[in-house]
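Quick one, probably user error.
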């Protein structure tokens, strides 16, 4: 059995090396815990509703959930975002770039042309983007001559995905990109140079972004503090946990201001009396709370606390 498993890994690795785009089978092999719908390319298709609710999740909340699940390498900071107040949330389309090596680069370009790819290789991933995707690229931290996009490609990305990008590299045309309403860019630095001596190696394969491992279909949560790369099968848990925390915090603050409970009562494990009061408070204010009404009803039904 061990021999069979090693052979499977060997052939998966060989297939990655032989093609600049991972196959559906390879992506499914790497994301076995996802049991929901998938895109045609094999990436997990986390529901749009979860993506929309994810925008309200704090980085610290997502980090805490993932740590509790044993995922310790899913956050990366040290970015220079285009905007501090525009979150980037979506499904990762991953891209691996490396320093140019002509013999490998020529082979990649030949295969891309045979597969119907058009234009420069850094535009190939953009052609593959779907609504709700986030273009996530490891550009090996290159700044000078490592600008993966400018305002032309930025407009093309936003037209197809309506999200943004995360690049372990640089970007150019900061002023032009800032005019794309709703678009955000997480890069290491900004630089006016053009992209040179960089080759595309793979699309939709696992990549490393700083200290984080990123798989195609991971959910990206990019905010001022940094970027979380959330495994697809944990995305809903992150959202629901965040909503519960948000509601409990709001209830606690409200009751403290009213003087109904002491800080010691709210900061410790709640008594049954407080839990019952919380449930009643949810019902009484269900139309006014910062969480969808249907989700509050589901929380009350499941009693997750």
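Nope, works fine. Designed sequence:
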């Amino acid at each position: 059995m061990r021999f069979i498993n090693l052979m499977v890994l060997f052939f998966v690795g060989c297939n990655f090396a032989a093609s600049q785009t991972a196959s559906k089978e390879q992506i499914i092999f790497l994301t076995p815990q996802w049991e929901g719908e998938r895109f045609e390319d094999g990436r997990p298709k986390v529901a749009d509703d979860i993506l929309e609710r994810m925008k309200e999740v704090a980085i610290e909340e997502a980090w805490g959930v993932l740590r509790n699940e044993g995922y310790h390498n899913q956050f990366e900071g040290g970015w220079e975002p285009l905007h501090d107040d525009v979150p980037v949330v979506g499904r990762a389309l991953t891209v691996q770039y490396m320093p140019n090596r002509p013999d490998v680069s020529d082979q990649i370009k030949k295969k891309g042309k045979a597969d119907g790819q058009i234009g420069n290789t850094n535009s190939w991933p953009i052609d593959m983007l779907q609504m709700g995707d986030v273009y996530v690229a490891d550009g090996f931290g290159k700044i000078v001559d490592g600008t993966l996009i400018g305002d032309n490609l930025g407009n093309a990305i936003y037209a197809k995905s309506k999200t943004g990008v995360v690049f372990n590299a640089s970007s150019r045309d900061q002023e032009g990109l800032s005019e794309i309403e709703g678009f955000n860019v997480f890069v290491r630095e900004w630089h006016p140079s053009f992209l040179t001596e960089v080759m595309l190696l793979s699309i939709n394969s696992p990549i490393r972004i700083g200290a984080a491992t990123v798989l195609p279909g991971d959910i990206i949560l990019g905010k001022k503090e940094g970027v979380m790369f959330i495994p697809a099968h944990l995305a809903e848990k992150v959202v629901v946990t965040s909503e519960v925390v948000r509601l409990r915090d709001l209830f606690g603050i409200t009751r403290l201001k009213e003087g109904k409970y002491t800080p010691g009562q709210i900061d410790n494990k709640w008594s049954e009396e407080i839990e019952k009061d919380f449930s009643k408070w949810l019902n009484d204010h269900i139309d006014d709370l910062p969480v969808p009404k249907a989700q509050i009803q589901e929380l009350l039904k499941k009693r997750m606390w």
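DSSP finds twelve helices and 13 strands in the chain.
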